[in-house]
Amino acid sequence: MPHKVKAVISRVKDAPVEVVDIIVPDPGPGEVVVDVLTTGVCHTDLHYKLGGIGDEYPYLLGHESTAVVSQIGENVTNVKVGDRVILNWRAVCGQCRACAKGEPKYCFNTFNATQKMTLEDGTELSPALGIGSFAEKTLVHSGQCTIVDEDADPAAVGLLGCGVMAGIGAAINTGEIKRGESVAVIGCGGVGAAAIAGAQLAGATTIIAVDVNVDKLEGAKKFGATHTVDSSKVDAVEAIQELTGGFGADVVIDAVGRPETYKQAFYARDLAGRVVLVGVPTPEMKLELPLLDVFGRGGSLKSSWYGDCLPSHDFPMLVEQYKLGRLDLDSFVTERITIDQIEEAFNKMHEGTVLRSVVEL
Hints:
Layout lengths: L2 E8 L7 E7 L6 E10 L2 H8 L8 E2 L3 E9 L11 E4 L9 H4 L17 E2 L6 E2 L9 E5 L3 E3 L6 H4 L5 H12 L7 E5 L3 H13 L3 E6 L2 H8 L5 E4 L5 H7 L6 E6 L4 H10 E9 L13 H7 L2 E4 L7 H13 L11 E3 L4 H10 L5 E4 L1
Parallel strand pairs: 4-8, 11-12, 11-14, 12-13, 14-15, 15-16, 17-18
Antiparallel strand pairs: 1-2, 1-4, 2-7, 3-5, 3-9, 3-18, 5-6, 6-10
């Protein structure tokens, strides 16, 4: 029997979000219904609200979640009712050209639920990243569920569902940081702070946090930053070079995603160093670099999609690191809020006063 539950939608572009009743259908083949425990308020949800991702309104927002499986459809074998899961937006197909060549982390045909959740009047909802978990229940493909231990704080580990995984993965998976290397992270919001935590986990010994916000720089230290650079007062490239023997960092991660910060990352790396772009640019942004500089500096320029993660591998591994005390996921949770405080949380995010507001349902 379909469920009527409370949820948060974005009905039209750049309007305040609304708490409404939605209808969640029973799961079909390959689908599951989950009871949502926690959902982080992520910049991606704000992008949906502002029209920066598409115009398929109304959107059912939320995607960075821990949940409990409450119903399963036919042919579901990877989870059972009662399992604690982290939701993900990379349910790999196993058949596309990326999967076929052993690179499922780049799957080009990820699964989502086939059925649609709706408003009470039958209007179909577009779930954010195929999840839509600012809701008491949501419908997803079973492959979007990764089982995790029940004794881990759901508010903390649920953040692996998007932003924290993006940052950690940018450092470990995309940047391939090695023990003893130097790393600079430009932008110390949630994703940047996670990249710093990932650099520490990977064994980097010099970790430079760069931002224009002194509070974010101070916060970066608890995630592993060994040095901080206030780029509103000094030249970030020169400061990074000075902190790395005049050479530049082995890996520079741009967690902002603007042409200005990407150029900083490009020139702040050592010869043959790696640049990782994990901050998401807007469609109108353009980048101009001398091609000779691209050639002459060598190394690699990489983009990181979802931290180049494979949820079935990375989520349990990182939860284990959290339980062992090697990864401080708790510090990413700035505040715990209710479902009717999400608009206020978006405002705090815009002001840069939180790493993550987490909705507890």
